[in-house]
């Protein structure tokens, strides 16, 4: 029997593409708010005896996570064989250590909670820094669909003479893989953060890269302050071509997108893991491949 894909609110396009890609049925789910703000959930397509897949990217996760839990729990109660999650963006990965006394290590707590009610999960390039892999904190089966092949393809098709620039050491893993895929050079900046919105970066000697198009790449663009600082440094180094800014996940908190535009980005491009007007890079083929492997493997 075909798997059943339910779209959580706002993720209908993701669910439709996913169902078509893996040959699954698109299920109907109803969610709404009671007048007091509580969540109503109804599965209009029966999950009895079916492998269920929930489609929901987890940007702005607090409200979505409760909806996800209710949908999963209901599917199980109504006889679903397994319940998986396709979350192109995975939240609560950046607080991966206790930096100050008394802080919650929310990446671990969130992983434990999701693992209690899901059988498997597919995501795209999670923010792995101090955790070497998702398996370290998630007890359910997980798979990571890489964004770097799609980014490299886009750069190869749209950017002349690219120079990949990683804004900080944390971005190095993405920047170096993209540069290898696009067959072009790569430099990684050093970063010093002075607060949530104040970042200082420095650029190695860039004199030999004049004539190249700087392509700034990072996994998450949230406040965009790291990207803005890197952009200014690239400009100050004398690279003449307008920088292209690429992010895997387009969070763009507050005025981040406008601020990045105002800082002089020639083009801002993101993957379609979080719906945003800057989405230009399609990672659905990678997501479909990862889901097909996990959904078909009990």
What report would you give on this structure?
- The chain has 298 residues and is α/β, with parallel strands linked by helices.
- The protein has two domains: 156 residues, Rossmann fold (3-Layer(aba) Sandwich), CATH 3.40.50.2020; 134 residues, Rossmann fold (3-Layer(aba) Sandwich).
- It has eight helices and 16 strands.
- It has a six-stranded parallel sheet, sandwiched between helices.
- Helix 1 packs across helix 8 and helix 4 crosses helix 5.
- The radius of gyration is 20 Å and the shape is elongated.
- The mean pLDDT is 90.
Number of domain units: 2
What's the multimeric state?
A: single chain
Outline, from the CA principal axes?
Answer: elongated
Strands, count: 16
End-to-end distance, in Å? 14 Å
Can you list the strand order of the major beta sheet? 2-1-5-6-7-8
Low-pLDDT runs: none
| Most strands sheet | 6 strands, parallel
What is the mean predicted local confidence, pLDDT? 90
| Radius of gyration over C-alpha positions, nearest whole angstrom | 20 Å
Helix-strand blueprint:
Blueprint: E1 4-7, H1 12-22, E2 25-26, E3 29-33, E4 39-43, E5 51-55, H2 61-77, E6 82-87, H3 106-117, E7 120-124, E8 141-145, H4 148-158, E9 162-166, H5 172-182, E10 186-188, E11 190-195, E12 198-202, E13 213-221, H6 225-236, E14 244-250, H7 256-262, E15 267-271, E16 279-281, H8 284-295
Helix pairs in contact: 1-8, 4-5
């Amino acid at each position: 029997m075909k798997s059943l894909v339910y779209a959580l609110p706002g993720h209908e396009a993701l669910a439709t593409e996913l169902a078509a890609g893996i040959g699954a049925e698109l299920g109907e789910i109803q969610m709404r708010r009671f007048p007091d703000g509580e969540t109503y959930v109804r599965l209009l397509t029966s999950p009895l005896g079916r492998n269920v897949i929930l489609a929901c990217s987890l940007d702005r996760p607090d409200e979505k996570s409760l909806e996800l839990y209710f949908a999963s729990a209901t599917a199980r109660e109504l006889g679903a064989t397994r319940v998986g999650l396709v979350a192109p963006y995975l939240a609560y990965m950046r607080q991966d250590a206790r930096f100050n006394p008394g802080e919650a290590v929310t990446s671990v707590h969130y992983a434990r909670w999701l693992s209690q009610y899901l059988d498997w999960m597919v995501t795209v390039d999670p923010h792995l820094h101090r955790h070497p892999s998702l398996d370290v904190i998630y007890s359910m089966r997980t798979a990571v669909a890489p964004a770097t092949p799609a980014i490299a393809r886009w750069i190869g098709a749209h950017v002349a003479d690219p120079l990949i620039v990683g804004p900080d050491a944390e971005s190095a893993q993405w920047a170096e893989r993209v540069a290898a895929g696009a067959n072009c050079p790569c430099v990684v900046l050093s970063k010093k953060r002075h607060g949530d919105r104040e970042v200082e970066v420095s650029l190695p000697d860039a004199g030999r890269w004049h004539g190249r198009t700087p392509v700034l790449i990072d996994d998450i663009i949230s406040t965009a302050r790291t990207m803005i600082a890197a952009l200014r440094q690239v400009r100050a180094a004398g690279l003449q071509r307008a920088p292209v800014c690429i992010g895997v996940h387009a969070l763009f908190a507050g005025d981040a997108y406008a601020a990045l535009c105002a800082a002089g980005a020639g083009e801002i491009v993101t993957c379609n893991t979080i719906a945003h007007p800057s989405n230009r890079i399609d990672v659905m083929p990678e997501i479909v491949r990862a889901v097909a492997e996990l959904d078909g493997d009990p």
